[in-house]
Amino acid sequence: MNYIYKKWLNGHSLNVLVCGETGSGKSITGLALLLTLSKLRGIPVNLKKSLYMDLEKFMLGFYTSKRNIYILDEAKIHLSSKKWWSDFNTYFGNILATQRYRENIYIIILPLAKTLAKEHRDMIDVIIEMKGKGWASCYIVMRRWSEIKKFELWRFYVGDLAIKLPEKKYVEEYESIGEQKKEEIYLNMAAEVLGKRRCFCGYPINYLDTECKACGFRWSQKHIYQLIENKLGAMSR
What we know:
The protein is of the alpha/beta class and 237 residues long. It has 2 domains: 2-174, Rossmann fold (3-Layer(aba) Sandwich); 195-237, no CATH class. It is built from 8 helices and 9 strands. It has helices at 2-9, 26-41, 47-50, 55-62, 82-98, 118-121, 168-194, 221-236; strands at 14-19, 51-52, 69-73, 105-109, 126-132, 135-141, 155-162, 196-198, 204-206. The strands form 2 sheets. It has a 7-stranded mixed sheet with strand order 2-3-4-1-5-6-7, with helices on both faces. A hairpin with a 2-residue loop joins β5 (126-132) and β6 (135-141).
């Protein structure tokens, strides 16, 4: 924490990677980092503007900002999507190329560090590897700036970190925002992947449409969700 804070005060933009298996407390750790660093720097906490799961909104959200902290939390629904990872690495590359002078801290939450594109891994400054809920090993990335061969990640172990659970109000707000954004991602993905369905009248409509433009019949949101689940289930089989 001292390393991150001192580098930040000296005008650096830092990339912090939080990784670990599902359920290991990555998101809570990211939130705890954001709250601690915000308090140290005297920055008001606004999770609605700091937490992102949608890649395009992430890019737009911080593009003009300075001296802020952002979390890009992995959306579980996308973990098997090649396109999502491709987009992520493209956007993350843009961050690294254009944002170093903005003095922002970017907390990237991913299950596996190696899912980052090789050309981006060398720009990670700190790695926090979850060992369990409330406990993590911390590494500082030591770069070889003169290296011209294939990059290898050089990590310097600095110790283990005990993560104090953030205040309940922040945890609840984080989870609420996260669930809402995951729902948006899920529905957008469903619309893109599933394409068209047909109303009872035979008119083709999108999976997310609740009203048929031809006959005016309205479908319940619950019914739409069930159609999506059935379709995705059939595709996975």
